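Review this fold:
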Amino acid sequence: MASGGIARGRLAEERKSWRKNHPHGFVAKPETMPDGSVNLMVWKCVIPGKEGTDWEGGYFPLTLEFPEDYPSNPPVCKFPAGFFHMNVYPTGAVCLSILGSAWKPSISMTQILVGIQDLLDNPNPASPAHHECYQLYKKVLIISSGTRIVFVRRRRSILHLCSHEPTARKILAADQYSFIWVVTCHDWKIL
C-alpha cells in the first residue's frame, strides 16, 4: 500500500473512532470538498476552552493538515493566523512537542486535540513560537509589587486572581481571543 493509502486508512479509522467516542465539546471532521467528497487529509476542528481556566467558554477553530506519510510524521496543526499565544507561531501553527520531536505514530487525534487544549492554559516558555507574546510573558509578568500583566479571555477572570476588586485596569492589547490587561491589585491569590 502506498504511503498515502496508509495515511488515508489510518485517518478513516481515526474518524470511525472519533464518531464513537470523543471528548465533550470538541469537534473534528474531515474537510468537505466543493463536490461533496471528503478530504481525509485535512480536518476542521474546534477546541473548547478548558473549564476553570481563562479559556473557559471559548471555542477555538483549528485545522489539522496530515502529510502523505502520516502516521510516520505528525500533522501540522494551525489556529487562524494571528492567534496570540506563546506556543503558536504568528502563522497559527502550533508548537507542541507531540507534534515534533516527541511524535509517535501511536498518538491519536484525540490525544493531539486534548494536548493542544492543555497547552492553551499551560504555555511552555522553554519553547516559544510567538516572539511578542513571549517577551510580554518574560518581561512584565510582574511590573511592581502589586501590578502585573494578566492574559485573560474575559474581564471576570481577573477577579478570580485578586481577593478584592483590582484598583487599576488598562487593556494593553486585544484580539478576538484574549485581552492583555495591566492590573494593580495588592492581594493577589496566586503568584
